[in-house]
Amino acid sequence: MKELILVIAKALVDHPEDVRVNEREDDRGTVYELSVHADDIGKVIGKQGRIAKAIRAVVTSAAIKSQKRVIVDIIS
């Protein structure tokens, strides 16, 4: 799952070397924290959050196989 988020995020940003994904377990499930360069935060979120919603939808769909709850948080 972590690799999937990295591939998607690196394709969107101008500074792919600054893309980081941290994985942690929470009471809500597995939380992936996506961190990008400050200049790229708008590219990852998109207009009205459309790209962020799409990333979350793809990751959630991929997580259905493993029957886990997955959350993607975008931080700068």
TrEMBL record:
A probable RNA chaperone. Forms a complex with KhpB which binds to cellular RNA and controls its expression. Plays a role in peptidoglycan (PG) homeostasis and cell length regulation. SUPFAM superfamilies: Prokaryotic type KH domain (KH-domain type II). This is RNA-binding protein KhpA. Keywords: Cell shape, Cell wall biogenesis/degradation, Chaperone, Cytoplasm, RNA-binding. Belongs to the KhpA RNA-binding protein family. Its main location: cytoplasm. The keyword Cell wall biogenesis/degradation applies. It is found in: Cytoplasm. The lineage of its organism: Bacteria, Bacillati, Bacillota, Bacilli, Bacillales. It holds the Pfam family KH_KhpA-B. Forms a complex with KhpB. The keyword Nucleotide-binding does not apply. It comes from the Bacteria. Coiled coil: none annotated.
